[in-house]
Amino acid sequence: MQSFAKDEKRWSGELVELMCCMDERDKVQKKTFTKWINQHLMKVRKHVNDLYEDLRDGHNLISLLEVLSGDTLPRERDFLKTLRLVSSTEACAYEQHEDVEDEDKGPREKGRMRFHRLQNVQIALDYLKKRQVKLVNIRNDDITDGNPKLTLGLIWTIILHFQLPKEKAVYNVPPNRSKISDIHVTGESEDMSAKERLLLWSQQTTEGYAGIHCENFTTCWRDGRLFNAIIHKYRPDLIDMNTVAVQSNLANLEHAFFVAEKLGVARLLDPEDVDVSSPDEKSVITYVSSLYDAFPKVPEGGEGISANDVEVKWVEYQNMVNYLMQWIRHHVTIMSDRTFPNNPVEMKALYNQYLQFKETEIPPKETDKLKIERLYELLEVWIEFGRIKLPQGYHPNDIEKEWGKLIIAMLEREKTLRPEVEWLEMLQQIANRIQRDSRSCEDKLILARNALQADTKRLESGLQFQHEAEIAGYLLESENLLRQQVIDAQILIDGKYYQADQLVQRVAKLRDELMAMRTEFSSLYSKGHTLTTEQTKLMISGITESLNSGFTTNLTPELNAAMTQGLTPSLTSSSLTSGLSSGLTSRLTPAMTPAYTPGMPPQLIQSYVTGVDGGTLQTLKHMQIRKPLMKSAFVDQNLTEEEVNMKFVQDLLNWVEEMQVQLDRVEWGSDLPSVESHLENHKNVHKAIEEFESSLKEAKISEVWRHIPHFLS
User: Fold this and answer.
1) GO molecular function, one example (predicted)?
2) CB atoms < 10 A from the CB of 641, how many?
3) Which of 67, 33, 65 is nearest to 50 (CA)?
4) What is the CATH number of domain 192-295?
5) What does the pLDDT look like over 18-32, one tens digit per residue?
6) Of the CATH numbers 3.40.50.2300, 1.10.260.40, 1.20.58.60, 3.40.50.1110, which one belongs to the domain with range 311-514?
């Protein structure tokens, strides 16, 4: 009996000690759960002071579930009206008894009678059952009556369902583990699968930290090193593990809770609640689950960056951004350069280089830009968490701004390059035309030179010329080609074409050759057109005979034969030189010229004869001056504008040559009477020159209008 008494006493002592320990744990749980509830209720501006009392009416419990789930739950009056459990009159009657105490010995308030309280708590319990949370032995009256154990059990059930991690695959949790929705709670009962999941997360997070082991949620957390290690894993800049290794338990716990609070984790525990021989497991689990909830994590089935890979991915992101930004800025500088070559080949190569850059280099860099944006999305959670400090200029928006500058610079460069290429291509075509026309002109001058040499030999042999008309045609064609080359050369000079100087020198050389050829042509054929002494005597005798017979008799056949032998076909043209007039006698008059040969125009025979009556002499004194024609005289519907202009300009050139010949041959008199007799000729010459100036202005205007479309293009 004595032994039994001792055992009973010992058992009683242990039971008392156990009850005290349980009471102490309940106090810690109550404090922890109250803080956990308040951190959520503060979002709807509500607060719980006493966990057991402030959940009895069901209002705070419903508000807590609404905050955690995001759903809207009915309240007691809406619920009653919907189910028609009481009439509106009865509901109003309840509300009128505000000053009457109910059986709970508390004042009645709107919607807070016992019946309303039970209904509100039942609404919360039914909602949990709807979410497949199985509640065992927890009834609405247990919460309404403020049962401490069952109230703590209900809150623990809610914590397990809403707070503990659900992403099993992220931490290599076997797929056959129970889900949170499969938790079975009976008051203080705990769900091991949820606890194991959180324990596995804690173990993986603190893996590799020397001297730190996570085997449970009680004694392993007492010294505070586990809390600090978890925080250090996510924010190594905030925790110094060397200091943690030498600090006291309370100092470590206080530092961990202080830092975690800065990171958004509510201080659910106090250091003295954990630094005990056996910390409350549920309180520790609740706090650790808050850490898990606040820290970044890889989403289930999605992409993410774990805490171990943050630094590696951040360095990779920085390198990608640095390289792309340098590449963009380098090419913005290149695209902004407006120093272009004047060589069409080099310019075309530059334009092709731009097109190749646009087609082959831009797409890969766009892909790199998208990779940077995607990597930033994965790092963004760590940037917001504070693990990464994003420097200025490293945001994807900053890259997009620089990219936009590059695109604008490219568009502006293409807008500038394309007209430059087209302009240089046009100049190249003009240069090619000059080269082609120059070769053609050189060929014609060679042919003219050969023909001229042939006629020179014939002249030396006393034979008749054969190539005068042919040579004149070559010279005329060469002159027309040269005029166009001069215009084209000026365009090349104005356009700063890179071979303009060489082409101008070639055109100038052709011009000199053409002028020399014309001089030789005039010299040769002026000699060939001079009449011999015998031919002159025959012409004088024929003219005298014609004068004596009253101009009714033509020249003799012998004279015609002599003229045919001595005069080439060019003698009849307007280019007859002064050598012809020097071989004629001074007695030849214009009135006689139709009689001696039909091939010689009267206006080219400039001689005077005595014994003619006064009217004939007056006619002789006046020069036969042809007025220059205006452009309108050449307008023909069968001719193009270019052909009309060419005929117009050619007529002006012919007029100048004719006037030069006449002015060289005319006699202006040797005394006052003879000078006065030629005064009319002076007036006619001046009048003709004035008219020529008008025609020349018209020709210049036509030339300007002809080139305006060319320059505009």
Assistant:
1) actin binding
2) 11
3) 33
4) 1.10.418.10
5) 455 567 888 899 999
6) 1.20.58.60
Q: What is the DSSP string of 5-27?
A: HHHHHHHHHHHHHHHHHHHHHHH
Whose CA is closest to 137, among 155, 161, 153, 126? 153
Cα of 418 vs its chain's centroid, Å: 15
The yes/no answer on whether domain 1-80+110-163 falls in CATH 3.30.450.20 is: no
CA distance 582 to 530: 8
> Which of 106, 104, 111, 95 lies closest to 59 in space, CA to CA?
111
- The secondary structure of 586-604 as a DSSP string is TT--GGGHHHH-TTS-GGG
Q: How many CB atoms lie within 10 A of CB 11?
A: 10
Please choose, from the candidates 225, 222, 420, 237, the residue with its C-alpha nearest in 3D space to the C-alpha of residue 338. Answer: 420
pTM attached to this predicted model:
0.55
Q: Which candidate, 384, 389, 391, 383, places its Cα nearest to that of 321?
A: 391
Distance, in Å, from the CA atom of 218 to the CA atom of 282, rounded to the nearest integer, reads: 9
What is the per-residue pLDDT across 349-375, written as a single tens digit (0 to 9) for each? 888 999 999 999 999 999 999 999 999
Contact 596, 607 (CB under 8 A): no
- Hey, what are 325's tokens? 């930004």
The set of residues, in sequence order, having a beta carbon less than 8 Å from that of 336 and lying 6+ positions away, is: 409, 412, 413
CB 61 within 8 A of CB 312: no
Amino acid identity, position 116: H
Looking at residue 566, its amino acid is G
Neighbouring residues of 596: CB distance < 8 A, sequence distance ≥ 6:
539, 542, 543, 546, 554, 555, 559, 563
Q: Which residue has the higher pLDDT, 638 or 177?
A: 638
Query: Which residues pair with residue 573 across a beta bridge?
Result: none
Amino acid symbol at 517: M
Integer Cα distance of 387 and 234 in angstroms: 7
Compute the C-alpha angle 681/682/683, nearest 5°: 90
**Contact, 221 vs 213, CB < 8 A?**
no
**Bridge partners (DSSP) listed for residue 101:** 107
Query: Which band of pLDDT confidence, cut at 50, 70 and 90, is reported for residue 543?
Result: very low
